[in-house]
């Protein structure tokens, strides 16, 4: 893009001279010159075309001199810069020009090499100014957008929180509704806090956030904030301690300090490994908050004994929206907002934050925030209280999952829920329990173990999970012979077209995007289970209705076809039993039992017998004798064969041979 240059000079030959000297740069579009022979003419051009990059101004002109014109430049073209080109190169003129905002000064007679270098340097500076202005404008637009969107969010959130609070106060509120209402309240407050954090980041980026200090009891203030986390810590079996060695009244920005402390504490508790057993305070599961300092520097340290942060992730944890790769830890990934806000608020207050962490025993992470705070003077009474700001979401513990109904028949469909958000997992389990048997797991690895053990009918899984994500879990389910019949519903916040395709390519049967309607999930589960039941009925009829085609010719399930092939190979072997069949299929007896029941509603022993009898029907129709048929399909005696055949087909083998062949 050409550098647009306005030359203001009353000498008649200046246009021809510059046109000749810079003809190559004019021709290739590097420079675009415009000329004015007086200050007034230049003023008109500046008003009509305020996009000049560089002005070359003479000082001595008949109407408006160059120095006067220079003083108008910030008003008319604030992002342009002027170079004085004049024969009046004495120190007084140079000083006056520079004081009025000139970027540089070139003396006449002109050294054109020097002028060319000066124009390039000035144009680069103008480009930097415009880029900075563009960044600032975008930041201001972003802040304005976040201001507006925050307002738009606050109104519906208020209309959620206020009625919910009112309902929770009702004396006759059914206890069955209280858990769901508390879940709504907790998550609405958390959503409001996330919105506030995004707004703070936008204001920081736009330079609109200011530090406003007031005197207050900093130690007591943080103690109240830490106390708000105690119930949550106890529920998770974590010992949370607060140690303060900073008495007196201090000058600090309470809102920003609260943001910093809250995020560090929430982070420490969130990334503590879950307990396998009953929660109880454990000396090995600690989060410690330590406050100390001197009259020049206050030090806040938050240390935990959690899993630690890997060396690969440590340099980037303060980056905005940075998240560790799924599966990189045994814990859920965060939003990438909290720690970025901690660093930027700390920097805004003139402090610094550091982190030390280890992922090898002893594991743990320590964040240290150092702030240059001052003690309040004796004449400055405390104006800040000790209560945490009301916009902070109260870290209320998630209530334990209720006992699910157990009145189902043993053959009721089994649903496996895999979701790392405890509240959502509990909610879904509570909603599905009246209809199905329900198992739940907090992550993909735990879920995979249970799937192999229990062989559920349907798996409902999140995608973004620690240790093993939903995509990989789906791939394992669909590519493991023992589990390939299990249906998978992916339930996730990743709802783009490419993400949906990824899930479906791994073999997912359904893909639902959060937020979802519970009724839709229930209907999709119902439809999947109906399809599964129809297939079971079909596979059963292929054995119980001899007029239908051979099972090996029509069966849709690849594993079941493999099982039939093993039975066909050992058809005349009376010693083939469930144990030997499991060995042939390289799976445990228990897995074989669950797999066969899931596909056919038959026990493996029943399936073996019915397959033999189905083959016997074909042999009898082909003219084989009853005795030959009995031995050919693995029965030791024709009498026992005849009894089993009549039990299944309601005809003796002889009657079946004589009867006309029924049409399918």
Provide a count of the helices: 24
Strand order of the largest sheet: 2-1-3-4-5
**Percent strand:** 5-15%
- Would you report the number of β strands? 18
Bulk shape: elongated
Share in helix: 40-55%
Which regions have little confidence, pLDDT < 50, spanning 5+ residues? 325-333
Assembly of the depicted chains = single chain
Structural category is alpha/beta
Output mean pLDDT. 85
- Spatial gap, N to C terminus: 80 Å
Alpha carbon gyration radius = 39 Å
Largest sheet entry: 5 strands, parallel
Structure description:
Helix content is 48%, strand content 15%. It is built from 24 helices and 18 strands. Strand 14 (414-418), helix 12 (422-432) and strand 15 (437-441) form a beta-alpha-beta unit. Helix 8 runs parallel beside helix 10, helix 10 (254-270) packs antiparallel against helix 11 (338-348) and helix 13 runs parallel beside helix 14 (470-478). Mean pLDDT is 85; it is low at 325-333. It catalyses: ATP + protein L-histidine = ADP + protein N-phospho-L-histidine.
């Amino acid at each position: 893009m050409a550098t647009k240059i306005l030359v203001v000079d009353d000498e008649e030959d200046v246009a021809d001279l510059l046109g000749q000297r810079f003809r190559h740069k004019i021709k290739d579009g590097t420079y675009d010159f415009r000329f004015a022979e007086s200050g007034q003419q230049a003023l008109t051009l500046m008003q009509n075309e305020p996009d000049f990059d560089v002005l070359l101004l003479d000082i001595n002109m008949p109407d408006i001199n160059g120095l006067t014109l220079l003083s108008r430049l910030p008003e008319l073209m604030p992002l342009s810069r002027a170079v004085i080109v004049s024969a009046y190169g004495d120190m007084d003129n140079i000083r006056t020009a520079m004081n009025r905002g000139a970027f540089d000064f070139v003396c006449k007679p002109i050294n054109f090499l020097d002028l060319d270098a000066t124009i390039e340097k000035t144009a680069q500076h103008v480009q930097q100014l415009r880029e900075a202005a563009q960044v600032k404008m975008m930041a201001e637009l972003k802040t304005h957008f976040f201001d507006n969107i925050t307002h738009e969010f606050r109104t519906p959130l208020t209309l959620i929180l206020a009625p919910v609070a009112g309902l929770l106060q009702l004396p006759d509120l059914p206890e069955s509704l209280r858990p769901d209402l508390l879940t709504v309240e907790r998550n609405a407050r958390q959503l409001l806090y996330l919105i506030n954090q995004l707004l703070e980041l936008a204001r920081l980026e736009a330079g609109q956030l200011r530090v406003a200090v007031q005197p207050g009891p900093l130690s007591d203030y943080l103690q109240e904030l830490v106390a708000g986390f105690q119930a949550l810590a106890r529920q998770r079996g974590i010992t949370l301690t607060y140690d303060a060695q900073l008495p007196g009244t201090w000058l600090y920005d309470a809102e920003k300090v609260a943001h910093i402390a809250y995020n560090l504490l929430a982070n420490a508790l969130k990334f503590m490994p879950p307990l396998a057993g009953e929660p109880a305070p454990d000396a090995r599961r600690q989060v410690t908050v330590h406050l100390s300092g001197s009259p020049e520097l206050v030090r806040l340290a938050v240390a935990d004994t959690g899993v630690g942060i890997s060396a690969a992730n440590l340099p980037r944890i303060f980056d905005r929206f940075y998240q560790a790769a799924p599966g990189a830890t045994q814990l859920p990934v965060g939003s990438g907002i909290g720690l970025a806000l901690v660093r930027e608020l700390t920097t805004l207050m003139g402090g610094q934050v550091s982190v030390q962490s280890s992922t090898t025993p002893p594991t743990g992470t320590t964040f240290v925030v150092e702030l240059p705070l001052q003690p309040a003077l004796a004449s400055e009474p405390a104006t800040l209280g000790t209560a945490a700001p009301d916009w902070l979401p109260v870290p209320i513990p998630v209530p334990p999952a209720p006992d699910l109904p157990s009145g189902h028949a043993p053959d009721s469909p089994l649903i496996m829920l895999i979701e790392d958000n405890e509240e959502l997992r509990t909610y879904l389990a509570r909603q599905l329990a009246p209809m199905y048997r329900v198992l739940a797991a907090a992550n993909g690895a735990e879920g995979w173990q249970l799937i192999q053990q229990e062989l559920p009918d349907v798996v409902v899984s999140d995608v973004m999970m620690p240790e093993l994500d939903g995509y990989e879990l789906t791939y394992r389910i669909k590519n493991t012979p023992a589990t390939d019949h299990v249906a998978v519903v992916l339930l996730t916040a990743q709802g783009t077209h490419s993400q949906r395709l990824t899930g479906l390519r791994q073999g997912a049967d359904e893909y639902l995007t959060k937020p979802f309607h519970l009724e839709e999930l229930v209907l999709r589960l119902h439809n999947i289970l109906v399809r599964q039941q129809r297939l079971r009925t079909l596979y059963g009829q292929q054995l119980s209705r001899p007029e239908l085609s051979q099972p090996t010719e029509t069966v849709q399930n690849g594993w079941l076809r493999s099982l039939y092939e093993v039975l066909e190979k050992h058809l005349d072997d009376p010693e083939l039993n469930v144990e030997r069949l499991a060995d042939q299929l390289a799976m445990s007896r228990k897995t074989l039992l669950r797999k066969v029941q899931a596909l056919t509603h038959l026990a493996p022993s029943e399936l073996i017998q019915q397959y033999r009898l189905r083959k016997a029907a074909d042999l009898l129709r082909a003219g084989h004798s009853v005795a030959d048929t009995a031995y050919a399909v693995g029965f030791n005696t024709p009498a026992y064969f005849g009894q089993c055949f009549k039990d299944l087909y309601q005809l003796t083998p002889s009657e079946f041979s004589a009867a006309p062949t029924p049409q399918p």
